[in-house]
């Protein structure tokens, strides 16, 4: 990986509680703030904008580490990398009348955008001399953590609900994590990790319970701005579970504006959930600042089956500040959206990615999104990890082939 080592410099000033603004030093191992809220990383943006130009960036590799000034790793020797290259922003003219793109995050290591967050969290864990990490997961976060932890020589413990897609559980175990399935939801798995921290001496890498996964996910926003030549789309549709990506992108755009690299116009952030698990949509619709626990969460889109999110108030704030909204789509519409995209554009999405297209269609219909707006959909993982309909076509090569029947 090309790390432009000659000018690697760290600009973090401090860490900050996302609720109270209380400050914490950057050099310590830290989880949630004293108020049980996620902690955000703060940078000396004025100095970065003096010392870094858009032209400088162009000379660097097209990968996540290109934005090192806006990332928390102090010593480049602590970078734990599996090749976090740019993901393509693909125009999809056959999917709608308006300007529509899919950012295909399935091309990242371990096949999902969880790699962005976990490569940062594990790199920082290495920098802070942590040796054992643990995570509750619906699949992809565990796979990414297992892979990066192995790479860093750490031991890792992963807890999945027992109905997590089988392939996820297997890939996690193959990448060397102590892997357990649990007869509960991700929140139950989270409790196992939380309550075992002391006895097991592990570091809790749960969504938003340490400061650095957001910084990794933030690169989706930096990369998107960079790819679009520092002009952002009108709307971003994001499948929202714990919300790291949405919160991270909003943070990225705020930092870029403070550096003077983009203007104050923001993409409207649209959070998509399944009607089977839509705590953020409910809170948005009811005008609440935080979400309630969603009972009996169930959806084909496992990655967004998150009944309670610690960062719920940050997701809702990000949506409202940008004039976006939250939208719930049915599992049937997710499955049908996945088929349409594969058939019309040759792109195999994961169900969560398909949910963004289902939401696009639904909200064009409702009028909350206009065909005049440019829209970016996030496909969060490779479609290959998820079940597909069985193919029953069969040819008996020992007998004469009736070619006319192949057209059917
Ligand atoms: C984790 C995950 C999501 C949700 O991402 P957040 O940023 O945590 O909200 C969506 N889809 C897939 C496939 C995921 O793995």
Question: How would you describe this structure to a colleague?
Answer:
There is one protein chain. It is built from 12 helices and 13 strands. The longest helix is centred in the middle third of the chain and has 16 residues. The strands form 3 sheets. The protein has a 6-stranded mixed sheet. Strands 8-7-6-9 form a 4-stranded parallel sheet, with helices on both faces. The protein is globular, with a radius of gyration of 21 Å. It folds into 2 domains: 195 residues, Rossmann fold (3-Layer(aba) Sandwich), CATH 3.40.50.1100; 91 residues, Rossmann fold. By secondary structure, the protein is of the alpha/beta class. The model has no long low-confidence stretch (mean pLDDT 96). Helix 5 links the parallel strand 7 and strand 8. Helix 3 crosses helix 7. The site of pyridoxal-5'-phosphate has 18 residues, from helix 4 and helix 8.
Short recap of the structure:
The chain contains twelve helices and 13 strands.
- Residue ranges: pLDDT <50 for 5 or more in a row? none
| CATH-derived topology of the largest domain | Rossmann fold
Rg over C-alpha atoms, rounded to the nearest angstrom: 21 Å
CATH class descriptor name of the largest domain = Alpha Beta
Strand content: 15-25%
Domain module count: 2
Distance between the termini: 48 Å
The second-level CATH architecture of the largest domain is: 3-Layer(aba) Sandwich
Could you tell me the number of beta strands? 13
Q: Output mean pLDDT.
A: 96
């Amino acid at each position: 990986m090309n790390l432009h080592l000659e000018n690697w410099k760290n600009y973090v000033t401090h860490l900050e509680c996302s609720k109270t603004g209380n400050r914490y030093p950057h050099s310590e191992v830290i989880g949630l703030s004293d108020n049980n809220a996620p902690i955000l990383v703060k940078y000396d943006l004025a100095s970065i904008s003096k010392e870094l130009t858009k032209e400088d960036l162009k000379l660097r590799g097209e990968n996540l580490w290109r934005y090192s000034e806006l990332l928390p790793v102090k010593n480049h020797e602590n970078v734990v990398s599996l090749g976090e290259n740019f993901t393509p922003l693909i125009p999809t003219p056959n999917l709608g009348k308006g300007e529509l793109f899919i950012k295909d995050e399935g091309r990242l290591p371990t096949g999902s955008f969880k790699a962005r967050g976990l490569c940062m969290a594990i790199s920082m864990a290495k920098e802070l001399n942590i040796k054992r990490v643990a995570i509750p997961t619906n699949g992809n976060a565990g796979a990414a953590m297992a892979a990066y932890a192995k790479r860093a020589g750490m031991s890792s413990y992963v807890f999945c609900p027992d109905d997590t897609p089988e392939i996820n559980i297997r890939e996690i175990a193959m990448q060397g994590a102590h892997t357990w399935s649990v007869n509960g939801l991700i929140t139950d798995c989270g409790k196992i990790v939380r309550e075992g921290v002391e006895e097991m001496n592990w570091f809790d890498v749960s969504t938003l319970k340490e400061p650095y996964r957001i910084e990794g996910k933030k690169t989706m926003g930096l990369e998107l701005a960079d790819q679009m030549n520092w002009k952002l789309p009108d709307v971003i549709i994001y499948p929202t579970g714990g919300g790291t990506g949405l919160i991270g992108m909003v943070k990225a755009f705020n930092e870029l504006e403070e550096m003077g690299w983009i203007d104050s116009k923001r993409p409207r952030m649209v959070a998509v959930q399944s009607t089977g698990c839509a705590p953020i949509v409910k809170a948005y619709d009811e005008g609440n600042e935080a979400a309630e626990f969603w009972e009996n969460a169930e959806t084909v889109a496992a990655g967004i089956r998150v009944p309670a999110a610690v960062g719920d108030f940050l997701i809702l704030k990000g949506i409202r500040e940008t004039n976006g909204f939250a939208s719930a789509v049915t599992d049937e519409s997710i499955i049908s959206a996945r088929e349409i995209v594969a058939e019309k554009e040759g792109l195999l999405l994961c169900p969560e990615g398909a949910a963004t297209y289902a939401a696009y269609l639904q909200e064009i219909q409702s009028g909350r999104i206009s065909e005049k707006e440019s829209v970016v959909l996030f496909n969060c993982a490779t479609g290959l990890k998820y079940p597909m309909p069985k193919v029953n076509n069969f040819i008996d090569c020992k007998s004469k082939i009736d070619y006319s029947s192949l057209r059917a």
